[in-house]
């Protein structure tokens, strides 16, 4: 048996059932989901409809075909051979099978498609009776039944894995749609096996999780996308203080009951990245790496604050080696709406009315020539990119003077002003300033301490001292600055190594 190389979605599974011919047609439940999931799946995809379909419905299908860059085919039951030939000509007849996904078919149509080497997948519950009765007990491997259209990607995943053998591993992934799209459009999540034998399929909360996970060899998650609340207290142990969505809780229950299930990065390993206090404390261990280098790598000076009005706050800031201006961040680092609500404070008396969620971390503001180095650890490899960053303190003070040095409030997911008068050094000059060996040591150290497969961290170089300061650590970044032809195979390699239990060697930065 060969894997699925192309899928044709019939109008009967895409259009909403019961639409009156005189009304504006619409897509049925699950149609948009499947159209989006197949777009970047590395599987040819098309839409078919009969010659007698109304013009409004044909227009709707053609609009979606254009939106997702799919082909359109006319299906005539009296000329199935022509349909088969047209699809093969359009997609080229390579190794593998084509699949027609329908909600109703006559037996002779199914037989003719199957005799042409096609697979037929029948959506059994689509709001109307089928032309024939289908037996759930059928043993015809070329005729498949699904109850929801959302089951289709998992079905294709199962067929491709079965066709390719045990060496192929399936990865179920969970993340918010915008993040998934960013990865998928770079080719990161194919339903056909990657060169190193991985198939990717999105897990769906509308389907029974246990049923989906029976097909899965490993789980890749961005659990922070499913956080509802995080309770911060004096304890930095977050395991029982993070509330996830109902679907994520179901996934966690399954994992607890199946300890052999491979999670690319276990949930407990990402908890330090949720807590800015915990990360600051971890970064304190970087001191041990500074003995063999002229440069120094460290975390920023910091202080945890639970009340901006506490009487001795100014003295505590001094004791923590924090001079104004400071940058103030919520202790919770991600997963909740206000995790990125921050401020730069220029005067000590501004703290008492500061509108930053508590508890908060007051952090040293490092003058760094508006240049940030973003490092990405992907398995045993490290990449970096040079990005523009916020201005030095003197420029920020000039900007704040226009508003009487009131705190500068901002969302860290959005851009802050960059000093336009300060001519940026070339990337070659910036590249020479970074101590690659020192940062490589730090990256390997963080990989061991955090025990994460894929994470990122931001480094700024302090003017005057040359200190390399790690100002942020995050889990499963997009590493979008790394070219796809390098980033995506490395991403696959890191996941495969995690699945097979191979020990990663010490990483080296790839320039």
UniProtKB/TrEMBL annotation:
The keyword Endoplasmic reticulum does not apply. Pfam families: Ins134_P3_kin (PF05770), Ins134_P3_kin_N (PF17927). Residues 171-269 form the Inositol-tetrakisphosphate 1-kinase N-terminal domain. Its cofactor is Mg(2+). Residues 295-484 form the Inositol 1,3,4-trisphosphate 5/6-kinase ATP-grasp domain. Keywords: ATP-binding, Kinase, Magnesium, Metal-binding, Nucleotide-binding, Transferase. The keyword Kinase applies. InterPro entries: Inositol_tetrakis-P_1-kinase, InsP(3)kin_ATP-grasp, ITPK1_N. Gene3D superfamilies: ATP-grasp fold, B domain. It comes from the Eukaryota. Monomer. Belongs to the ITPK1 family. This is Inositol-1,3,4-trisphosphate 5/6-kinase.
């Amino acid at each position: 048996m060969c894997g699925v190389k192309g899928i044709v979605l019939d109008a009967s599974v895409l259009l909403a059932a019961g639409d009156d011919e005189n009304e504006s047609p619409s897509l049925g439940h699950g149609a948009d989901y499947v159209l989006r999931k197949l777009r970047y799946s590395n599987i040819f995809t098309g839409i078919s409809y009969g010659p007698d379909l109304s013009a409004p419905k044909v227009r709707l299908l053609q609009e979606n075909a254009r939106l997702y860059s799919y082909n359109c085919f006319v299906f005539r039951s009296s000329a199935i051979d022509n349909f088969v030939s047209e699809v093969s000509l359009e997609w080229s007849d390579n190794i593998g099978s084509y699949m027609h996904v329908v909600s109703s078919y006559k037996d002779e149509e199914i037989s003719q498609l199957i005799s042409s080497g096609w697979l037929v997948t029948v959506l059994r519950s689509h709001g109307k009776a089928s032309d024939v009765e289908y037996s759930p007990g059928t043993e015809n491997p070329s005729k498949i039944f699904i109850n929801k259209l959302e089951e289709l990607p998992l079905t294709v995943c199962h067929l491709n894995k079965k066709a390719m053998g045990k060496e192929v591993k399936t990865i179920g992934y969970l993340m918010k749609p915008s993040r998934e799209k960013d990865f998928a459009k770079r080719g990161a999540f194919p339903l056909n096996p990657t060169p190193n034998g991985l198939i990717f399929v999105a897990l769906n909360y509308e389907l029974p999780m246990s049923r989906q996970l029976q097909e899965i060899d490993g789980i890749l998650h961005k659990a922070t996308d499913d956080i509802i609340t995080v309770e911060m207290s004096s304890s930095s142990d977050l395991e029982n203080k993070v509330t996830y969505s109902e679907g994520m809780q179901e996934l966690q229950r399954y994992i607890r009951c199946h300890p052999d299930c491979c999670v690319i990065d276990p949930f407990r390993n990402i908890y330090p990245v949720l807590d800015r206090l915990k990360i600051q404390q971890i970064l304190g261990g970087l001191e041990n790496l500074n003995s063999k280098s002229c440069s120094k790598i460290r975390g920023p000076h910091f202080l945890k604050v639970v009340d901006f009005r506490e009487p001795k706050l100014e003295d505590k800031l001094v004791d923590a080696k924090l001079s104004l201006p400071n940058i103030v961040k919520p202790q919770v680092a991600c997963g909740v709406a206000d995790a990125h609500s921050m401020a730069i404070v220029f005067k000590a008396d501004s703290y008492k009315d500061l509108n930053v969620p508590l508890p908060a971390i007051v952090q040293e503001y490092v003058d760094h020539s508006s240049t940030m180095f973003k490092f990405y650890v992907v398995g045993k490899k490290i990449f970096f990119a040079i990005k523009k960053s916020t201005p030095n303190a003197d420029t920020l003070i000039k900007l704040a003077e226009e508003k009487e040095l009131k705190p500068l409030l901002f969302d860290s997911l959005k851009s802050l002003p960059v000093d336009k008068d300060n001519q940026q050094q070339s990337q070659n000059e910036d590249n020479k300033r970074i101590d690659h060996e020192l940062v490589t040591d730090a990256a390997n150290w963080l990989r061991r301490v955090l025990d994460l497969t894929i994470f990122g961290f931001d480094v700024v170089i302090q003017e005057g001292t040359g200190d390399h300061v790690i100002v942020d650590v995050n889990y499963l970044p997009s590493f979008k600055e790394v070219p796809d032809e390098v980033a995506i195979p490395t991403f696959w390699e890191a996941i495969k190594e995690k699945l097979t239990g191979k020990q990663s060697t010490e990483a080296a930065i790839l320039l």
